[in-house]
Amino acid sequence: MKKIFLFSIAVILFTVASAQHQLVKLWSTDTILKVPESVLFDGKNKVLYVANIDGQPWANDGKGSIGKVGLDGKIIAVDWVSGLLAPKGMGLYKNKLYVADLTELVVIDVTTGTIIERIAVEGAGGLNDVSADENGTVYVTDSRARRVYEVKDGKASMLLDSSKLKGPNGILKHKGSLYVLDAGSMYRMEKDGSLTKLAEGMEGGTDGIENVGGGDFLVSTWGGVVYYVAADGTKQVLLDGRGDKINSADIGYDAAKRIVYIPTFWKNSVVAYELK
Predict the structure, then answer these.
(1) Mean pLDDT over residues 117-139, rounded?
(2) Hey, how many other C-beta atoms are within 10 angstroms of the C-beta on 2?
(3) In terms of CB atoms within 10 Å, which of 65, 99, 159, 175 comes out highest?
């Protein structure tokens, strides 16, 4: 009887722990986006920017574009800004949208919807994710060359090289710390350039990263899994689209309303969820 009681308590505790957080679906856009790889929330202008690859992930075909979606899920423009190659991660500083586009960082003026600068990144093999800090410094990962770059005043310099990375993707500068997703693990870069592993055991295609308060983060994987990663490194699966072959690439996040925006890649839509 005692064993049954203890087992029941263990089951209850496990159930409560596993139900600690959840994603509640709010809406989904029409499926007319063009292989959306990344979503970025712009609270000031109350809009979402969507990076449309429109083709194979690393194809230099000139078909890429940035789309614009309302916070209600209605598509404002599929090809708001065209003339890109295979755009992926984005970062926003004031009115400048920075887009990783294979070997260069494309800068878009969001007030006019025009490309105002293209920053070439020497030696880049495949730029992927972007994060901009409060001072306008931009950080960008290179998944193919296995590097992380820092961009200041229009010039890129290498911050982390291939000796420390396997295939970095998601990146986030948050409250003075730089976080990097690499081959299924989450790291924080220290002042001496070393990497401290904060969580591991996720799918190798770790893609997007967003802070949800304190030391807790959301991490998406291209394969379709979204994790809640607690400050102690423990993980909870919030979403798993692998069975339905629904990807979850580079997510966006509205911290005030706790809304997660997930690009579905080959399914050509963006889906919004409230984080509970």
Answers:
(1) 97
(2) 6
(3) 99
